[in-house]
Design brief:
By secondary structure, the chain is mostly helical. The protein folds into two domains: 428 residues, MFS general substrate transporter like domains (Growth Hormone, Chain: A, Up-down Bundle); 59 residues, no CATH class. It contains 22 helices and two strands. It is found in: Membrane. It comes from Oncorhynchus tshawytscha (Chinook salmon).
């Protein structure tokens, strides 16, 4: 699992530590535990861990983390109502005080996630500029500093200094996104499995809660949270080592130039062409001379080949020796590819986050408020979140299925990649449609299928999102485009607040009409794969027309030559 996969998993662990500390203080003062009235603090913590940890899988975005925390808090309150019959010996004042304390604590935790997530999402665009302008090393060093700062702030924090959680969680989430952005380009080293590698990173990102489970396992055996975070702080040395010795200083180009190599030589051997062993070279650093010349030529070629995907219909085919034909960032943003891809990401992300916000009330309603049954389904939902790393590569294999096959006459590698991506985009949209059909169903057992479709579709969305950007647009704009889509999607997520208000105030907690509306809304996502498919067909038609014209012209020249000879 890569370095970014555990940075989002750390924050909620500290929240549980604060809860446990307050529970200890409550026992000392003979008051009931703030978040549990009938169970011991440790029992409550262990029983709720599985229902809590999906929140830091989605801490990357503000809305799901906020509302998942609130919905789980409501689940705890519902359990208390069922247990009040056994609490007759507790004074009413203590009961109301404990409920109030838990509510205030949950609101503060939700505020931490909201502030950190929104700030991170809106910073994605300038951070994308940083990656595109200054390269991998500068971006990863900044991410390492933020990661170390975040873990150290949690290490030195306490219930009296809980305000440190605001900068700590912001630093952790931002560092995780920066690591993920720089790791995505590693797929360029594996030409035949490029999208698969990117999808593996996306799946690992979804399964980041596995690190939390390790911390939970250690905590149950007496290892304090402060010690765990101190060890994680020391692990920043691994990030530094990888930044200097296993990652390039600038960017990994695509397609790779001949004999491309980077890093420090070890025993004279160097990596080249995506993992194949290169020639012996005694020096360190990136190789100079012919490699740099070919890198520059390849960069122009890669940009020129990406440009026709957007502009060929108007400008015709481009030539590698014309760098002025490179698609500008403004042209990329104003293209139909970017617009429909933004709609594709924003709609499906909105559907997923609204599901997270309403999953606990939905389970309570379908289970007739049977908390044992609700806990069973919540645990199943939590377990499925760990399977993202297993689902991610499937999407990459679909996008890479054409690799190794000969290209059609006149077809570029970028065009072949784009044509292959249309099936992945279509399957992702179809998964989202089936996912919300299951969400709209009133059958409780069907929600197991809902959980499976949710984690599968989530892995397909983020892996396909990054892979499509690397295919359809020049690599020099990858960071900016990825950050801009994330920031704009975060703005769309603000619509959840009025939607949730509508469900609560006007639909009496039953989101069936909203779910049906979102099911119809997912049909918009099919426009994106359809547009890509039609664009590829248009390019293929242009190639055939050009080939026929060349054949006709060559035939005319032969006829003229024969007439002249006669």
């Amino acid at each position: 699992m890569s370095s970014h996969t555990h940075t989002l998993s750390l924050s909620h662990t500290h929240n549980l530590f604060l809860t446990h500390t307050k529970a200890t203080e409550a026992r000392k003062s003979s008051l009931p535990h703030p978040c549990s009235l009938s169970e011991t603090p440790v029992d409550r913590m262990n029983s709720s861990l599985w229902s809590l940890h999906p929140s830091f899988l989605l801490a990357l975005s503000p809305i799901p983390a906020l509302h998942l925390s609130l919905s789980l808090s409501q689940n705890v309150v519902d359990r208390r109502r069922d247990e009040q019959s056994s609490l007759s010996d507790i004074p009413p004042f203590s009961l109301s005080l404990s409920l109030s304390d838990c509510s205030v604590q949950d609101e503060q935790f939700s505020l931490v996630f909201t502030v950190a997530s929104f700030s991170t999402n809106f910073l994605r665009f300038p951070l994308g500029f940083l990656f595109d302008c200054f390269g991998t090393m500068a971006t990863r060093l900044l991410a390492t500093c933020l990661y170390t700062t975040g873990t150290l702030l949690i290490t030195v924090s306490s219930p009296e200094q809980s305000a440190l959680l605001f900068p700590a969680i912001s630093c952790l989430i931002t560092s995780g996104m920066l690591f993920y952005t720089t790791n995505a380009q590693v797929g360029n080293l594996f030409d035949s499995h490029r999208s698969t590698v990117i999808s593996v990173y996306a799946g690992a990102f979804d399964s980041s809660a596995a690190v939390f489970l390790i911390i939970k396992f250690l905590y149950e055996r007496g290892v304090s949270f402060h010690s765990s975070f101190l060890v994680l702080s020391v692990c920043s040395v691994i990030h530094v080592f990888r930044t200097f010795f296993l990652m390039p200083k600038t960017h990994i180009p695509y397609p790779l130039p001949d004999r491309y190599a980077y890093g420090v030589s070890c025993g004279g051997w160097r990596w080249k062409r995506g993992g194949e062993r290169g020639e012996k070279d005694g020096g360190g650093g990136e190789r100079k001379g012919d490699v740099n010349a070919k890198y520059q030529k390849n960069a122009v070629l890669q940009k020129a080949e990406s440009a026709p995907l957007q502009l060929q219909d108007k400008a015709g085919p481009s030539r590698p020796d014309q760098p002025e034909r490179v698609t500008s960032f403004r042209s990329c943003v104003l293209s139909w590819f970017f617009l429909w891809h933004l709609v594709w990401v924003a709609v499906m992300q909105f559907c997923h986050f609204l599901f997270i916000a309403t999953v606990n009330p939905m389970l309570n309603r379908l289970a007739n408020r049977d908390q044992t049954l609700v806990s069973q389904y919540t645990n199943a939902f939590a377990f499925t979140q760990l399977c993202g790393v297993l689902c991610g590569p499937w999407n990459g294999l679909i996008m890479d299925r054409h690799k190794g096959k000969p290209l059609a006459p006149g077809e570029t590698k970028q065009e072949a990649d784009l044509r292959s991506s249309s099936l992945s985009l279509f399957l992702t949209s179809l998964q989202c449609l089936l996912f919300y059909v299951c969400v709209s169903s009133p059958l409780l057992p069907l929600q197991y299928l809902t959980f499976i479709l949710q984690v599968l579709n989530s892995a397909f969305i983020y892996g396909g999102h990054q892979a499509f950007l690397t295919i359809a647009f020049p690599g020099c704009h990858f960071g900016k485009l990825s950050g801009l889509i994330t920031s704009l999607s975060a703005v769309v997520l603000l619509l959840q607040f009025p939607v949730l208000h509508l469900i609560r105030e006007f639909l009496h907690g039953d989101p069936i009409y909203v779910n049906v509306g979102l099911t119809l809304l997912t049909l918009l996502t099919f426009i994106h794969p359809l547009h890509v498919h039609l664009h590829c067909r248009s390019l293929a038609s242009q190639r055939r027309a050009t080939a026929e014209e060349e054949v006709t012209n060559s035939g005319s020249k032969v006829t003229c030559n024969r007439l002249v000879e006669m």
